[in-house]
Automatic annotation (TrEMBL):
Residues 284-302 have a biased composition (Pro residues). The keyword ATP-binding applies. This is Protein-serine/threonine kinase. Belongs to the PDK/BCKDK protein kinase family. SUPFAM superfamilies: alpha-ketoacid dehydrogenase kinase, N-terminal domain, ATPase domain of HSP90 chaperone/DNA topoisomerase II/histidine kinase. InterPro entries: AK/P_DHK_N_sf, BCDHK/PDK_N, BCKD/PDK, HATPase_C_sf, HATPase_dom. It is found in: Mitochondrion matrix. GO terms for biological process: regulation of glucose metabolic process. Residues 246-470 form the Histidine kinase/HSP90-like ATPase domain. It is an enzyme of class 2 (transferase). Pfam families: BCDHK_Adom3 (PF10436).
């Protein structure tokens, strides 16, 4: 149970000022720059202050975005609840906005605020889906897609920043205890015999896509067997032993959604005897100059893609340019202005890993008959029109039997990494059309993507590309 958290009344001026703050991109390098756990107290403070500098403006942008919707849509109780949740989270952060985290006691309390934020927004996607489903007659599908695409991408970053600090905090607790025991002569009581964790917060620096595929296969197979009585099999080709640095929750969500589509198409086409082929192809390493620091600050990410490989390669905070952008507060900008140029360049080159992990492309190939030309152009929409009015009403009231896929069942499937309850499979293979566009949002967030090639009447190839953190010392 969380302790009572101090709050501050959020005014319209607070929201307007924060929403007008300058923007900068968030990268994987930002998340690992504080080092490998267990962190020192100073490193934990740096992580907390970095988190504090970014989140208030992000929350203000989301509040502003919700207020820009038509009033009748915002008046919907589900959408209004999300608006209230963002106001609550901002009210718990504002008491910290005028100070820095400089003690372990403050860091612990700040971590409680982050835990409250994650808990408060745990069901954001499913609640928004219900709200837009109820208000669909008052807002066009194009407006819904545009809003959700922006909102869900921003939510990925907000949740990720909070969860990263929580994970760093939790993995550093033994270190803090050892530091406290050091004065008592117990500093040698470390876990020298234990293998070093591959995690830096929520990022796994030795993530094996093949392991994620097998894990997701087991979950989706059970759903498929419950619904259809059969379970297609998966064959993994390419380089199944390849590992790179990424966020397991994100990859698990994406793979789950892609396998659900492939399994459903394969079974409904009657091709369950044909295996679904998953090919894992590491991205090639590109040699880069050996100079560890650029002579001048790097240009914007879009014009200067991150280098991969090379003995002295370094990745900068401006690389991997994801579309979602975080906000810098005025104190951060003033601090940067006082920082010598070469020191800024040095801190921009993040070197947390031991070897190059440029990224991977995963192809999922099925014999499920492909996607019809009529539906192909709509696969990236957050669509609510797959089900008829009776199904929609049943989903809104939690009704419906077990005879088919219902929208509400699918809402539990858009969970996990930036979704909701941590169960990425849900109870049905059907859905509201959130799975594929949300999966693409996760892939694109750090410079990857999803491409779909359909051969109508035969099958579908889906290409998932993901970028790692890059080689650093």
């Amino acid at each position: 149970m969380l302790l009572h958290l101090p709050t501050k009344t959020v005014t319209d001026d607070d929201i307007a000022q924060l929403a007008a703050s300058p923007l900068h991109p968030l990268t994987l390098a930002d998340l690992v720059k504080h080092g490998r756990p267990p962190l020192t107290a100073e490193q934990l403070f740096d992580s907390a202050n970095f988190t504090l500098a970014i989140l208030p403006a992000r929350l203000a942008h989301r509040i502003q975005s919700l207020r820009n919707l038509p009033y009748i849509v915002v008046s919907n109780p589900h959408v209004s609840k999300i608006h209230g949740n963002y106001l609550h989270s901002l009210s718990t952060l504002l008491p910290w906005a005028e100070k820095r985290v400089e003690s372990l006691e403050d860091e612990i309390r700040f971590t409680e605020v982050m835990a409250d934020l994650v808990h408060t927004h745990a069901n954001t996607i499913s609640i928004l889906a219900r709200g837009f489903l109820e208000a669909r007659r008052y807002i066009s599908p194009q407006e819904v897609t545009r809003f959700l695409d922006e909102h869900l991408r921003a939510r990925i970053g907000t949740r990720l920043i909070a969860e990263q600090h929580i994970a760093l905090h939790m993995s550093s607790q033994p270190h803090n205890e050892l530091c406290q025991d050091d004065e008592k002569g117990q500093s040698n009581a470390s876990s020298d015999g234990e293998p070093k964790s591959s995690f830096i917060g929520v990022i796994d620096t030795e993530l094996r896509p093949a392991d994620i595929v097998r894990h997701c296969e087991n979950m989706v197979s059970e759903i498929c067997e419950l619904k259809y009585g059969v379970r297609p099999r998966i064959v993994i080709t390419g380089e199944p032993d390849y590992a790179f640095a990424h966020i397991p929750m994100h990859l698990e969500y994406i793979i789950t959604e892609l396998l659900k589509n492939a399994f459903r198409a394969t079974v409904e086409r009657g091709m369950e005897r044909e295996p679904i082929e998953v090919t894992i192809a590491p991205l090639p390493e590109t040699p880069v100059p050996s100079s560890p620091l650029p002579p001048t600050p790097a240009p914007p990410a879009a014009a200067n893609p991150a280098p991969h490989g090379g003995e002295d390669a370094a990745i900068t905070n401006e690389d991997q340019g994801n579309a979602d952008r975080a906000s810098k507060t005025e104190p951060m900008l003033q601090k940067e202005a006082r920082t010598p140029a070469r020191r800024r360049a040095a801190t921009a080159n993040i070197r947390p890993l031991e070897r190059s992990t440029p990224g991977v492309t995963i192809r999922i190939r099925d014999r499920g008959g492909g996607i019809s030309p009529a539906n192909y152009s709509r696969i990236w929409e957050y669509s609510f029109t797959t089900f008829n009015e009776d199904d929609a009403r049943a989903s809104l009231h939690g009704g419906g039997g077990g005879g088919g896929g219902h929208p509400l069942d699918a809402l539990s499937a858009i969970s996990g990494p930036g979704g909701d309850a941590g169960n990425p499979t849900g109870s049905s293979l059907a859905g509201l059309g959130y799975g594929l566009p949300l999966g693409r949002a996760y892939a694109e967030y750090f410079g990857g993507g999803i491409a779909v090639q359909s051969l109508w009447g035969w099958g579908t190839d889906v290409y998932l590309s993901l970028r790692g953190v890059g080689k650093v010392d």
